[in-house]
Amino acid sequence: MESEITRRGKAGRPRPNREIDLYSTPGGTRAVENPVRRAILAALREREHTFEEIVDLAGRAKSTISVHLRDLVAAGVVGSRVDPEDARRKIFHLTGGLVASVSPQDRLDDEITAYAGTYRPGSSDPYTFYRLAFRTIRVALMQEGVLLDPLLTRAGERIGEELYPAVAGPDTEAFCTNIARFWEEHRLGRVEVAGTGPLTLLVYDCFECADLPVTGKPACAFDSRILRALFTRHYGRPTAAIETRCYAMGFDHCRFEVVPEVTQELENLPA
């Protein structure tokens, strides 16, 4: 089991061409490099699984999966309990959550990392500095290939739960109006409803990504999760806010589709 990112190679940097996931555990943070283990953990992030389900999802031999699970349990990343419907079976689950991912392939080019944000001395907008700090720190991490989406997701979920009472409405139209007002008042962006089938929100001047470099990938994990938490509470069922456009993808706005949440299963890995 990989326990430290810097076990080999230059301190503080991932080994070339190796992707790493960082998981929280009761004993601290653990780094996982093996692609099969990373895939097993990705499935367990969705829900608990029995051993047989993990074998089927991974498409690997039982003996191989058994070894991986044994090491993950020993490292404290995975826990297990007896299946209440069959005492001969175990059900596996995560003991913590995904903290971040390190991907050398996702490091930004030097030209892009020259980005330092924009700050105008004497600005009367109290939010300017905080937006600059948030984006600059994030770009600095992206420069090293560190993807904070998991942490931003968890933070967004908590904030969405706290925010809901402030924007709750009697119907979806009033709810969206309240969200748009809150976003504007707190300089989070300008929200517009672009459609209702599915419900589609456009966010202009998005605080999370409007000044980020163009990477071709959506960058609003924080915003997406806030919206997910809000609409899950509003509809009373799991609801996703899927980002289909983003400033970081080269658009002049971010676009979110609010749809019923669908559990994603682990795709089979090649043998």
TrEMBL record:
Signal peptide (UniProt feature, chain positions): none
SMART domains: HTH_ARSR, V4R
Source superkingdom: Archaea
Chain residue ranges for the region called Disordered: 1-28
Protein name: Transcriptional regulator, ArsR family
Domain 4-vinyl reductase 4VR: 198-260
UniProt xrefs under Pfam families: HTH_5, V4R
Domain HTH arsR-type: 27-104
Gene3D superfamilies assigned to the protein according to its UniProt record, in alphabetical order: Trafficking protein particle complex subunit 3, Winged helix-like DNA-binding domain superfamily/Winged helix DNA-binding domain
Organism the protein comes from: Methanoculleus thermophilus
InterPro entries: ArsR-like_HTH, HTH_ArsR_DNA-bd_dom, NO_sig/Golgi_transp_ligand-bd, V4R, WH-like_DNA-bd_sf, WH_DNA-bd_sf
Annotated GO MF terms: DNA-binding transcription factor activity
